[in-house]
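Name: Class I SAM-dependent methyltransferase
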Amino acid sequence: MLDYDKEAERYDDSRGGEPRAAAAAEGVLSLVPRQARRLLDVACGTGIVTRRIVAGRDDLRVVGVDLAPAMARRAAARLPGAVVLADSRRLPFADGEFDAVASVWLLHLAGGAENVRAIVAECARVLRPGGTYVTTVDKGASHNVGSDIDAVLAARPPSVAHDAAHLVEEYARDHGLVPAGTARFSGHGQGRS
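Structure predicted for Class I SAM-dependent methyltransferase:
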């Protein structure tokens, strides 16, 4: 597993920077209803996407949460007073506190089905009844597409994509959530591996 405290300083530049953040924020905002007033960005990382979500909707109060202290510090510099250091499997918020919850590029890193289930459960818990949960899916499956890293991993057995859309939908249904829409956005400048 990547050490995100060590990665924080170069994370944005090595992951597509502002173009990728803009695409992700646009995708998230396209799914968040206009009447939503409070959004939680789970695993906000450096806050590069979160900041664009804030800029995209004047009427939306956004809080970010991340587990890695260095990532949360970078996010807090971009979003003063709006970032909390916490584990996405145990969010420090009340039941039903948010109109919308987003978790972009998190579930494929969760380390297994049990963690993905816990994250989805927590996102559902802090969501108000009728609220919207936006997450990215199938990122784990997208890694086997002929990139340079495939040659390195070829000797290993294929890994299970714990963020597969059908699995995430199943976990969400277990907590009363149902699919309500989709959005697509392209990666930008992420390098080959």
